[in-house]
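User: Could you write out the 3D structure of this protein bound to zinc ion? I've included everything you need below.
Assistant: Certainly. Input first, then the structure.
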Amino acid sequence: MTLAKKARHGNILSINAKVARNINRAIILNSIRERQPISRAKISELTKLNKSTVSSIVASLIAEDLIIEEPDHNRGVGRNPINLRVKRGKHYVGAIYFDSTKTELAVIDMDGTIISSTEIKTEMGNPSGFVSLCIEKLNAMRGQFHPHHFRGIGVTVAGIVDAAQSKVVYAPNLGWQDLDLGQVVRQHAPNIEMVTVENDAKASALAELLLGTHRVNPNNVVFLSVGAGIGAGIVVDNHILSGGSHAAGEFGHMTIVEGGEQCTCGNQGCWEVYASDRATIRRYAAGKNLHQDQSANISLANIIEFAKHGDTVAREALTKSAQYIGLGIANIIRSFDPEVIIIGGTITQAWNVIYPEIMETVNKRGFFGKQRNTAILPTSLTANPPLLGAAALSIRKIFTDYRIAL
Ligand SMILES: [Zn+2]
């Protein structure tokens, strides 16, 4: 073998060894996060990695301050095994969710715990000035708890995002188009190593898988985000589907009523015109004969509250939206045959009202007479999914060691 060939061969081996170690590192770190507290022996048993690999990687994770050891005092007499946990209070990430009317900001720990959060009115005209304000606020919030920089800042946007380039392709409700949002954030946060930008529904899917408690199989899951509009994160074989023009999952604009009502996108009869929060509010206002200025102050949360207190118009507004949600879900099931569809958004707070309607509509559209077995669940996330999604963008990178590209 010539020297050149030897060198090349050696290089490939060392790259492969690094990749393999990085994959094992992510597997071990994730098993600690999911099952903590957990012993090295248990990790070895669960992951099928040999004990020396587990010990070596655990030692480096402790050296990186990502995990801690703690004695297991619950094991009675004899030798106390040492358990491992994700280290809290050390690695904070900044999360920003830009929505059309409000922007949410949070300081979030590596295990998904919200340390501090706030919301401000979204200013659309001057993205750089507004991002600067958001970073300033985030840093002030973090400074109350933690002296060090954020490990990363994750940003989610209600719009079409090219995540690989950190660019907003089109966010009509924010008035942003072809905006290099990642670059704008980096300008105002030059010390941050990781800046990640993603569509809100896609990042919500990531948050559900990374920080949620449903323990679903990430081979085929759809996270459906129902808010002012409707979008989805489609997870296939452990990957969030991006699409050829970064617009996979924009189900809100699939036609559900031919020649139906006008949508903001320019088409007619789009799903979100019938099933979004705005549709529910509009239906309620029509049922109560409210003027536009009266209905402007009513939120979906109000309508859910009214329905709980026996307001039949409020309840009907919710059940009608739920039927339309079910109609769209039946189409999604045809497209992707997901094992699970997880729904996020304020409307899930009325789950006992909407779930039976959704299921009835879905079941009416049985496939060749076969009973569907797609599970439909409300999000298990305890905070707004797109905000946790923004955090999950950075947390995922910490867990998979962003310094080594796979
Ligand atoms: Zn539309």
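The radius of gyration is 23 Å.
User: Perfect, thank you.
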